[in-house]
Amino acid sequence: MSGSISLCTRDRNTLLDLYRQASDPQLRLRAHVLLLLDAGYSWAVIAAVLFTSASTINRWRRRFLAGGLEAVVGPRRPRASVWSAAWVALVVQWVTLRAPTEFGFVRSRWTCATVAVLLRDDYGVRVSRETVRRWLRQADLVWRRPRPVLRPQDPRRAEKLRGIRALLRDLPADETAVFQDEVDVNTNPKIGAMWMAKGQQAEVETPGTNVKRYLAGALHWRTGELLLSEPGRQRNAELFLAHLDELRRRFRCYKVIHVICDNARFHDPARCRKVQKYLQRWGQRIRLHFLPTYAPEANPIERVWWHLHEEITRNHRCRDIEELLDLVFAWLAAGSHFNIETSLYDTAKATRALLQSVWVKTPRGARSSGPFFRGFSHFLGLGNLA
Length: 386
Known about the structure:
- The chain is an alpha/beta fold and 386 residues long.
- The chain folds into three domains: 9-73, no CATH class; 85-138; 157-191 and 209-380, Ribonuclease H-like superfamily/Ribonuclease H (Nucleotidyltransferase, domain 5), CATH 3.30.420.10.
- It has 15 helices and five strands.
- Strands 3-2-1-4-5 form a five-stranded mixed β-sheet, sandwiched between helices.
- Helix 7 crosses helix 8 and helix 14 (347-360) runs antiparallel to helix 15.
- The longest helix has 14 residues, at 25-38.
- The radius of gyration is 36 Å and the shape is elongated.
- The N and C termini lie far apart (101 Å).
């Protein structure tokens, strides 16, 4: 029959194996077409049975007649890209280093469609958004949420950190240091990931009116103990000074308490008259040290607040602020000691030297072999040094 082909036994068996076992559906289709042509079926019947076109049948028939079986089922030759690598590199540069507003778009983020429009309008290059998406994936780019970082930097950052490191390293036995900060607790829950049925987004109820409370806390440098004062309705100087009073009562055995805190206005005696008056009275016991501005990572207590939000305030189901605060304090009571989670301070070196000096000279009122020292050595991972 005109339009048919003739297969030898070897080629027929090869095509049968491909039709039955090949994982590529296109390869199975080609094998099926050639087998039916060899069996004498008409093109119309083959096209109807295989849901293909006469042009497809003719293409693979001609390739078989011109190059044999290898031309049909052999390795597929890669298509030569009509796009220069320079265009791909340019697109990658746009989406990683520049913003759409620089090109006149009224939007803050790139999309594949935006890149396609820019290529078409400014360079006369017509590509689909799927082509742009393929280019970006080939360049190992992924669509993910970025990490927020603070743009400003304190020009005295290195100087301030050196001063704090020196303070902690050379801290006398009768003095102590804490990292201080405030955190807000809201009845309106922070939203975080949770387990839910596939295709059904879980719901977290939020109150009609959000109620806030502020907790002032201090992380003890020596033990990792977290010290909290009573929650307040506002984050202000009254809350800060009440916390300093609590530190004075809790650390009666130390002559000086070094409080390392951020640069909030109500922390700074130069900008807050209440703090200035307080230090005029208690400056011999309370000394303030300020962290670099725009550097929350320099305060280890920020990691404690992160754990608090991750484990308590995200997706909480508390009905009111009292229930939420009870949950917060219960969580803190279950584990009131935290590691100093930052690499900015050489904890092991400073605290080992401190432990040796404390063991030689015990401050008045402290117990030299009590649970404080056993817990301290355990916190350091130094074992029982007593």
